[in-house]
Amino acid sequence: MRSLIFSQNEYYHLYNRGNQKREIFRDDADRVRFLFLILSFQSPKTSFYNVQQSTDALKQLIQHSVLNFATHNADPSIKEISKARTIDLVCFALMPNHFHLLVREKEEGGISRYMQRVLNGYTKYWNTKYQQSGHLFQGPFQAVQVENDHQLRYLSAYIHRNPHELEEWRGRAWEYPWS
Asked: Using 50, 70 and 90 to split pLDDT, how confident is the model at 171?
């Protein structure tokens, strides 16, 4: 049982890593799939479930869910996903064996439902793709409530700087495509 109780309009740092610190993202297709899930599952109205649909919808989801950029020719279901969000994804970083998310809960129970859908969906994808079974992640996701504006700014910088830990991105963390 989680001791932290999520509250509406509060910010939280959510993170988890691979079971036994194993990689959870082996290639760009894995990262695209996880990115699709963290964008689309902000809303309970998600209607895309296969890889082809998720790849095709990713660009529009980024425009509508993250950038709140409205285009006249966008898929109507993308607009619905954006309008019905139960959490706001503020920033993220996908690392080889873990992830960080900064979110704001918009609706009671939003974070719990969101993370259940994201982690279950990704685990099913992973287990199918790599012919595995069982747990992908090291226990339940971790959550820390953001207490003030200073902590919010620090956490955003920390998440965006996380790719600096990867040798090939040291000194170029701002160019890392998965943050």
From this structure: confident
- What are the contacts of 107-114 at 24+ separation with CB within 8 A? 107/8, 108/6, 108/8, 109/6, 110/6, 110/86, 111/6, 111/12, 111/14, 111/87, 111/143, 112/6, 113/44, 113/86, 114/41, 114/42, 114/86, 114/87
Query: Strand ranges (DSSP E) for 26-152?
Result: 87-94, 98-105, 142-145
Give me the amino acid identity at 38.
I
Q: Global pTM?
A: 0.84
Measured over the CA atoms of residue 123, residue 44, residue 162 and residue 144, the dihedral's sign is negative
Dist CA 103 CA 97 (whole Å): 20
Closest CA to 60 of 83, 44, 76, 42: 76
